[in-house]
Amino acid sequence: MKRNLLFVAVCLVSFAVGAWAQSGDVALEFGTLSAPSSISTTNNFQQSLSGGTYFGFNGDVLIKHHVGVEGEVAWRTSQGLYGGQLPFRPIFFDVNAIYARRFSRFIGAEALAGIGAESARFYSGAYTNCDYYGNCTNYESTNHFMADSAEEFACTPITTFLFGRKPDST
């Protein structure tokens, strides 16, 4: 519940900032993730974040010339298996500083860097995690700090609201 309220507050503030900003974007994203498997010791299982479809959304606001703030949230649409037994789902969220430049009406580039976190949710069959108010979930979470950077190249618009973009690295 607290996360939902925090998300709504962040969205409202983001749109309020957009009122005096130079420009802003909101986007839905679909993709997959490629990552090396974790290092395994005798006491730990390997957790793979690769494969599967990831769904998310992001938004950015350019505040001064080509510089602004960007944020995004993405999660795996299907559950993976941790150690081949325990269902889990990774959720990534971050906030970045962004530099975005348009070279023409159809071509642009972005560079961004920031911090965020990964929340790995491990699911059980029963609702066991309950708070004082009786709100229960069927998962336990573990959170990990994350730093990221990326360069992106935006290409020709397909329609007014739909366009393609190619991320170079993350």
Topology:
Elements: H1 2-18, E1 23-31, E2 54-64, E3 67-76, E4 80-82, E5 86-102, E6 108-123, E7 129-130, E8 136-137, E9 139-157, E10 163-169
Antiparallel strand pairs: 1-2, 2-3, 3-5, 4-5, 5-6, 6-9, 7-8, 9-10
Describe the structure.
- With 170 residues, this protein is mainly beta.
- The protein has a single domain (2-40, 48-169), classed as Porin (Beta Barrel).
- The protein contains one helix and ten strands; from the N terminus they run αββββββββββ.
- The protein has one helix spanning 2-18; strands at 23-31, 54-64, 67-76, 80-82, 86-102, 108-123, 129-130, 136-137, 139-157, 163-169.
- Strands 1, 2, 3, 4, 5, 6, 9 and 10 form an eight-stranded antiparallel sheet that branches. A two-stranded antiparallel sheet has the order 7-8.
- A hairpin with a 2-residue loop joins strand 2 and strand 3.
- The protein starts with a helix and ends with a strand.
- The tally of beta strands, per DSSP, is 10
Query: Average pLDDT value?
Result: 76
**Rg over CA atoms:** 18 Å
What ranges have pLDDT less than 50 throughout 5 or more consecutive residues?
16-21
Secondary structure category: mainly beta
Shape field: elongated
What count of helical segments does DSSP give? 1
**Span between termini:** 30 Å
CATH class identity: Mainly Beta
Helix content: 10-25%
Number of domains: 1
Residue fraction in strands = over 45%
How do the SSEs run, as a string of H and E?
Answer: HEEEEEEEEEE
Briefly note the CATH topology name: Porin
Question: Which CATH-level-2 architecture?
Answer: Beta Barrel
Main pleated sheet: 8 strands, antiparallel
